Amino acid sequence: MQPRNMSMSGVVDLAAVKAAGDAKAKAEQARAESARQGGGGAVAPASLVIDVDEAGFEADVLQRSNEVPVVIDFWAEWCEPCKQLGPLLERLATEYNGRFVLAKVDVDANQMLMQQFGIQGIPAVFAVVAGQALPLFQGAAPESQIRQTLDQLIQVGEERFGLTGIAVDAGAGAGDEESAPVEVPAGPHDAQLEAAAQALDANDFAGAVQAYKSVLAVDPVNTEAKLGLAQAELLGRVAGMDPQQVRKDAAENPAQPVAQMAAADLDLVGGHVEDAFGRLVETVRRNFGDDRDAVRVRLLELFEVIGPDDPRVVAARTALARVLF
After folding, report:
1. Which end of the chain is more exposed for a tag (fewer CB within 10 A), N or C?
2. Which of 48, 82, 93, 209 is catalytic?
3. Residue of 23, 30, 68, 79 with catalytic role
């Protein structure tokens, strides 16, 4: 399991809905029309990252996706994980040098777009390729996995739709401080975080846990490390489980903390987030003392996996507060 639904499965659905050849032909036709109208020239590096609203969505995203994959970052000013993910995506957009364009959508100012894409929590990242939308991932994620997803997206754009990207004029705006791309320096823990992500990819959950804890020992508020640690610990717990036995134990022991915590872990890994949270809130209600506290702590750990700003986490926190107080 890769963190935060880091998946390109939407591409398979796209191929089933619409023949790739037809979409490729439409994209080529759109590019030819743009060339006839004088478009298709080299763009400034600053044009690789754009702010998009509902009024400009068709031109800035849908039409542009006939030339280059457009990655959409749904964010909000109050969202702390967005402040971690946004600069990373902007840096990658510059580094990939025209192989994709990053469109940033403020969900507070563009509620209709948020609804149209079915956004349940932010940050959420989608892509539009030849006019077709597909989900990429939700929440913060290690840079290595984001790069892998972008590489897959670009490959799909090239092979199925003939999108080879757009030319970038590196000298454009060179004397303009406002339009010059800002270089994001490497963080002090990037090497450790990358090692942790590689361990997670290799299913070395113990190694990932140790690496993330090393970062948190010197930087206790590091968002990426907190998220990674919660994910690594969760995956490590479920790795050796017998799902049928876990479900059986939970059904036979509805108030038993250990049984319910194991079932909640399986719920979360399986994508049943509300079920996992509801199960543990109910188990907190049924128990007292050390047992209650153990379940409460586990629930807080699962909140870290999903992200504090996710509406499902907010609702579960409210439910937990009612039970506790």
Report:
1. C
2. 82
3. 79
Q: Is 4 a catalytic residue?
A: no
Each of the 325 residues of the chain gets a pLDDT tens digit; together they read: 333 333 333 333 333 333 344 444 454 454 455 445 444 556 677 889 999 999 999 889 988 898 899 999 999 998 888 888 999 999 999 999 889 999 999 999 999 998 888 888 899 999 999 888 888 888 877 888 899 899 989 988 887 778 888 888 766 554 444 545 444 455 567 788 888 888 888 889 999 999 999 989 988 878 888 888 988 999 999 998 999 999 999 999 999 999 999 999 999 988 898 999 999 999 999 999 999 999 999 999 999 888 777 788 889 999 999 988 7
Q: CA–CA separation, 40 vs 181, rounded Å?
A: 21
How is residue 4 written in tokens? 């935060």
The total of other beta-carbon atoms located within 10 Å of residue 120's CB is 12
Cis (ω within 30 of 0) for the bond into 123?
yes
User: Long-range CB contacts (< 8 A, 24+ apart) of 30-35?
Assistant: 30/63, 30/66, 30/67, 31/66, 31/67, 34/66, 34/67
As a whole number of angstroms, the distance between CA 231 and CA 208 comes to 9
Q: Which residue has the tokens 């539009």?
A: 128
Whole-angstrom Cα distance, residue 59 to residue 57? 6
Residues 47, 100: Cα–Cα separation, whole Å: 11
82 is catalytic: yes
> How much is the CA Rg of the chain, to the nearest whole Å?
22
Report d(CA 284, CA 291) in Å as an integer.
Answer: 8
